[in-house]
Write a structure and sequence with these properties.
Length: 408
């Protein structure tokens, strides 16, 4: 690992920063077999193939009557009722010519039948039925294997499991699934001014809030979270806590103290107890972002400003965690929009402005910045609905200009 001179950092373009981070960290190899009931949002450790076909047998899509049709049976055909087939209770006799079997949805088609007519379309008499309309061969039948074929791949490796995947796994008879173990992520916040909510504020203190955003963001990613509390602006104390965290975490997130202020000790501590890969990224908000390692743990030093820590988490830490979790990389879904107001931007850093986007009557997207873009203005994210994506060298955009947005 290269150790750059951290005293004279250059602003690293965000794409370079991200690819360096992804290169430095390997996907977790440990896997575990868990109940499908607990598998929501977990990442598959292997591709999953069907060991049986779904549905297993041809069966009825309707409540009605099953019979045999060569090509078509005309309306007014009379068929004698030979018996009954229920879901889970099949009719096993051969159905004779000119006969039918009463059948319920999901019941296996009895031998000798290939077609079902829903009961609403027949006249039912004591021991026979009369078709109200013509019936084509194969109507209202679900064919064996029409959902999933034997041996077919049903879920790829590296896929995040959804509720639909959970049902799919159960439908092929799998009670358990192999997933990548959840990464352990440590959160360390630094700052003498920070007080947890619930305590009285003294002069100069503020409530610690970034941990709450990080907790929510990490919960959405379904990782194991370990909190290391609020650490004073003291290099020795920060070093102790970071070293402790490095014993128990795959990734350490610190927050605050990573800039150039007098009480910003995180980089200096990182240089001493671990390695700095880079700090300072050409991103706004979020320039003071440090990346490195401490023992076997990856380390991301997030800026203390609330919006900066939020944006750098989403743009840099999230893809890193996806890699750690073995998740297939995701493309950012962007949309073209027109600026409803001018957008102010200086060249030099990729900017993720918080915006309000809306669609006009033609379905076209318009966007405007959501108030002040200061890196401490958390309400700019809380009530925005998109990022306005402005590339590094972009400058001011007039009203009516086109831009890209990313909806939350
Ligand atoms: P720093 O990066 O430590 O210089 O902090 C930059 C700004 O963010 C300062 O105004 C801090 O008070 C504020 N800040 C730092 N950490 C947090 C936090 N965990 N919660 C809320 N505000 C914070
Ligand atoms: Mg601080």
């Amino acid at each position: 690992m290269k150790n750059r001179d951290s005293s004279k950092p250059t602003l690293m373009p965000i794409d370079n920063a991200l690819s360096e981070m992804l290169q430095q960290c390997d996907a977790l190899l440990e896997r575990e077999s868990i109940s499908v009931l607990d598998a929501l949002n977990r990442i598959t450790a292997e591709a999953i193939f069907a060991k049986l076909q779904v549905p297993p047998k041809n069966n009825s899509a309707m409540d009605g009557f099953a019979f045999h049709v060569n090509q078509e049976l005309p309306a007014d055909t009379k068929l004698i009722i030979q018996g009954q087939a229920l879901a889970g209770n099949p009719f096993n006799e051969e159905v004779k010519a000119g006969h039918c079997v009463r059948i319920t949805t999901g019941a296996i088609l009895p031998p000798g039948t290939n077609t079902v007519m829903m009961q609403e379309n027949v006249q039912i008499n004591e021991n026979n039925i009369v078709l109200n309309q013509a019936s084509k061969a194969g109507n209202s039948v679900r064919l064996a294997g029409e959902d999933i074929q034997l041996g077919q791949q049903v879920i790829a490796s590296g896929e995040k499991l959804t509720p639909a995947h959970m049902a799919l796994l159960a439908s092929i008879g799998e009670p358990t699934v192999w997933v990548i173990r959840r990464p352990k992520v440590a959160i360390v916040v630094t700052g003498d001014e920070l007080v947890p909510p619930g305590k009285e504020l003294e002069n100069g203190q503020i409530y610690e809030s970034n941990r709450f955003a990080l907790q929510g963001l990490l919960q959405q990613l379904n990782v194991e979270i370990r909190h290391y509390g609020i650490v004073e602006d003291d290099p020795d104390k920060i070093a102790d806590v970071l070293l402790d965290a490095s014993e128990n975490a795959d990734l350490i997130l610190s927050c605050g103290g990573v800039s150039v202020g007098d009480a910003d000790y995180v980089k200096q501590v990182l240089a001493k107890i671990g390695q700095i890969n880079f700090w300072k990224v050409a991103i706004k908000p979020g320039k003071p972002f440090a990346f490195g390692t401490i023992n076997n743990a990856s380390f991301c030093g997030l800026p203390g400003n609330p919006v900066s820590s939020y944006v750098t988490f989403q743009k840099l830490v999230t893809p890193l965690l996806h890699k750690l979790m073995g998740r297939t990389p995701l493309a950012v879904h962007t949309i073209n929009a027109t600026c409803a107001e001018p957008i102010y931007k200086r060249a030099g850093r990729a900017d993720f402005q918080r915006g309000i986007a809306y669609q006009d009557e033609h379905g076209e997207y318009w966007v405007k910045p959501n108030g002040s873009q200061g890196s401490g203005i958390m309400s700019s994210i809380a009530n925005a609905n998109c990022y306005i994506l402005l590339e590094k060298e972009q400058t001011n955009l007039p009203k009516g200009a086109k831009t890209k947005i990313e909806l939350f």
